[in-house]
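Table 4 source record.
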Amino acid sequence: MHHHREKPRVPGARGHTLVEAMLLIAIFTLFVLGIGGMLNFGFTSTRALDDRQTAMHYAQTYMARLNALPYGSFEMPPSQETIQDFFENGTVVSDLTIMKLRAAAMLNEESIDVSVDGLEHDIRVTLSRDLNGDGDDYDAYEGNYSVLRMEVFYNGVSLLRTYRFDSTAGWTWPWP
């Protein structure tokens, strides 16, 4: 018959010390905080990606609506209600043109800010004579009133850009 023997006790040994327990708690706390930080980063990144995808959808919709408008001539800007209704619902008042929207954009640093429910930032639609995007419209061909650069931004990042020509002006693109 085999008897299991207990190990003899070392005098003064009473288990873990308080310092060891505190060290274990500190390591565990750092581990849990690290996991929490990674989860937070993941959720934040996922939200930003979802916002950008939603903004891209709206950018494509807005660009299609803008391209469907007649070019028109430079006139008084439409009301803020007309602009908001155009971007939110696609409602087009019979006399709405690209150049009327351009007049409205000139009142706000050449852009129209569109609020979208569920997005963290506004979508910015620019209608500009600054064809190369360098911040001025003094370069060759930029003063021509029959072409506009239309660009849609979200959170400061360009999502879509196109150029719109007044086909009745007889002006063509100057670069090969």
